[in-house]
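Progress against Task 2.4 (sequence-to-structure conversion) is shown through the following example record, which the project officer requested during the mid-term review.
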Amino acid sequence: MAKISTLILAKNEERNMADCIASVAFSDEILVIDDFSTDRTKEIAESLGARVVQRAMNGDWGGQQTFAIQAATYEWVFFIDADERVSEPLAKEIRATVEKGERNAYWIKRVNRFHHNAPGLCQPPVPCRRFLRQRVRPPGNRHALSQPEAQGSYVSLYL
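Structure tokens generated for the chain above:
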């Protein structure tokens, strides 16, 4: 059975870390790349079973993502921000898709909520969140791997 490493880039995310980690319990590994937080981010993540590696981002988002990919244990990686959550249906779909053994990357459509209210009108670009780690490298020093025109819950890209 294919295994998944979930990667979380974080800095001072103690308010979000526990809920984020709980939402990715379907993962075989949870890896937090911590940008030397000054709060309890590292301690909370470790107490919930995540592996934490501290590394300065120095403004290079793509470099931090590349570092996380290289540090991942398993072939499939899933990126999530600490302030994001994976719904139960999405978690099941991710696991089922990986178990099929297809060699794809996947874009996952996000739904923003403001103060836990209805979804917002302005939706961000749809980032590539799950892929085989040997086949993708994030570009530059920005949030990478975006595909704004993606539609639906999954859009596949053959690499």
